[in-house]
Amino acid sequence: MIAEDAQLHAMLTRLQLTAVRDRxxxxxxxxxxxxxxxxxxxxxxxxxxxxxxxxxxxxxGTSIAKFPFVRTLDDYDFEAQxxxxxxxxxxxxxxxxxxxxxxxxxxxxxxxxxxxxAVGLGRAAIARGYSTLFVAASALxxxxxxxxxxxxxxxRITFYGKPKLLIxxxxxxxxxxxxxxxxxxxxxxKRYERGAVMLTSNRSVGEWGDAFGDAVVxxxxxxxxxHHSHVLTIRGESYRxxxxxxxxxxxxxxxx
Length: 256
Ligand code: ADP
Ligand code: MG
Prior knowledge:
Elements: H1 3-14, H2 18-22, H3 24-34, H4 38-65, H5 86-93, H6 96-100, E1 103-107, H7 114-127, E2 132-136, H8 137-149, H9 153-161, E3 165-171, H10 178-191, E4 196-201, H11 208-212, H12 215-227, E5 229-233, H13 239-246
Parallel strand pairs: 1-4, 1-5, 2-3, 3-4
The protein binds adenosine-5'-diphosphate and magnesium ion (MG).
């Protein structure tokens, strides 16, 4: 490396333009090939640096979020699921609701793509720069109960209170103990109008009282969750079963 190159390398490092630094030769070849002028060249290099940073930030945010699987909104087959309003999902993907600290409820029977959409919308929020955490409702409540026993409840509530978006999956699959409902209420109260919450559930909102095991606490929780909420109700058959049926693995349902 000649002295000038070494100096340029050092300056790019000092300015933390590491993507430009590491790909300098290739980027400058592109510049020459496209015959860019100086201003266009500067813009091209800045774009390369910014794209790299965005990618790194999204990868980091996605790993912190602890999604159960890799799914995007682009993978979602809206035609197979006419109960889902694609326009509403696209609108939610702008993440304005996250900025506002609203609630999104994804309701419907098993297998219709609630978790898929939750992960997709979570990724969209991360891309917009919002910290996101995904947790199964049962794991969340078990964790809060354990923290409560250990005298560390405040710490855990603060932990779950921090991300700009908290996704709680499968609420209502298992009914909560009365104490668990109380702990859950504390979390919801902590996040209320501060951080966005997305919930998936196989139960309708009307049935949540049973899931929380305590009508008074259920009302208090619902009051806060439903105040600024967007509801997506998905109907229909499990996507996978449907695909299997199509492929002839399962016999079609015969209306009798
Ligand atoms: P739920 O959370 O409602 O039980 P999931 O989101 O786990 O359902 O979906 C079950 C599986 O089916 C996942 O692998 C998901 O990616 C897939 N799936 C469901 N609905 C669709 C759809 N409309 N388009 C593409 N894949 C889908
Ligand atoms: Mg699910």
